[in-house]
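hiii so my PI (J.) wants the whole complex modelled not just the main chain, which honestly fair. so below is everything: two entries, each one labled with what it is. i double checked the lines twice but i was tired so who knows lol
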Amino acid sequence: DQQVKQNSPSLSVQEGRISILNCDYTNSMFDYFLWYKKYPAEGPTFLISISSIKDKNEDGRFTVFLNKSAKHLSLHIVPSQPGDSAVYFCAASERGRDDKIIFGKGTRLHILP
Amino acid sequence: EADIYQTPRYLVIGTGKKITLECSQTMGHDKMYWYQQDPGMELHLIHYSYGVNSTEKGDLSSESTVSRIRTEHFPLTLESARPSHTSQYLCASRDKWSYNEQFFGPGTRLTVL
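here's the output for the full assembly
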């Protein structure tokens, strides 16, 4: 049973516009959430994270929003750039329990020229 | 800049062969992880280690084994490879003080014929 769900396998966005990637989770004990970015033939790289005590975290063009009541988080990229074309993985963990991170299936983002 | 290395990057072998996938990191991280990922699917944790002489099985059952004799080295071994082992294998590490930001290697894509 998937605990972290990314229901959009792919997303296409015009360069310069906002990209919004969505993620839902089922485990209410998750208290830390992360986004990773992955290019082909490379390992994932950490992008941004958010603790459950916050509802927003911003880092440059990247902002993550967390809605705990809806068990939903989203990653906003604005403005989108060609180098943002990659697969984005949403991930979650329960810090007090163990060291494991649960990953979603990923969303492939295509930035169109 | 993360310094975590995996070799080989690509491996094609026949059924029944014994293989070892290498993973090394130069960051002095105590915690290391092995994930398995099939295309379009989530990363599944198959093994992890909290330090030298510590190894644990992850959430996804795997016929592979691991060892942690040195801090920087976390090899994964398959005694007898089968076509069902065809997948991408990703190694990761993290510092115990940097909660949950794992650094990934580039991965090994294994194909068993």
